[in-house]
Amino acid sequence: MIDKIEAFCLKMLRNIKLGKLADWYEKHQEGMRYLVFGVLTTVVNIVVAAFTYYVLFFKLAEELKVSLSTAIAIVAAWIFAYVTNKLYVFDSKTNTLKEWLKEIASFIGCRLITAVIEIGLMNWLVTGLQFNYMVMKIVVSVMIIILNFIFSKLLIFKKGEKNG
């Protein structure tokens, strides 16, 4: 389905005389797909964070509210990111349970590192420095996307290599 949507969009670009842009996209398809799904992952993260922060946990102490909202949003984003990265971005193939377990363990391990960074930054920026929660959520999310791409590309979804 993603391939069909992508092909349709590339065809439209060529039809409106933006063939060079379509060619550039095709040349950088993996990075562009990561960008698209990274933005969607960030949307999942931000929507869940806003819902939990402003609706579910609005009566909690600020530090607890920030930590819980951020942690729940991160887990929701992880699930979305793992599935989309595996299937659509890096086209990762795991043929055995052992390969899949190694891949998912790498994914979770790397995401735990960036989660600690994200929660720490959010607490420092929102609780410590009193910046707006949603503004900082967006700023920090951009930094986390970059770190997650580096980890995904280099450590988790390695093309041309077996994960086991």
Notes on the structure:
It is built from six helices and no strands. With 164 residues, the chain is mostly helical. It has one domain (2-156). The longest helix has 32 residues, at 97-128. The chain is globular, with a radius of gyration of 18 Å. The two termini are 28 Å apart. The mean pLDDT is 88.
Helical/strand content category: mainly alpha
Gyration radius, rounded: 18 Å
Q: In angstroms, what separates the terminal alpha carbons?
A: 28 Å
Order of helices and strands: HHHHHH
In percent, how much strand structure appears in the residues?
under 5%
**Mean pLDDT score:** 88
Total helical segments: 6
Number of strands: 0
Q: How many structural units, i.e. domains?
A: 1
Helix content bin: over 70%
Report on the biggest sheet.
none
What spatial form do the alpha-carbon principal axes imply?
Answer: globular
Question: Which regions contain 5 or more consecutive residues with pLDDT less than 50?
Answer: none
Topology of this structure?
Layout: H1 2-15, H2 19-27, H3 29-56, H4 62-89, H5 97-128, H6 133-156
Helix pairs in contact: 1-2, 3-4, 3-6, 4-5, 5-6
Provide a brief overview of the structure:
This protein is mostly helical and about 160 residues long.
Essential attributes:
164 residues; mainly alpha; 6 helices; 82% helix
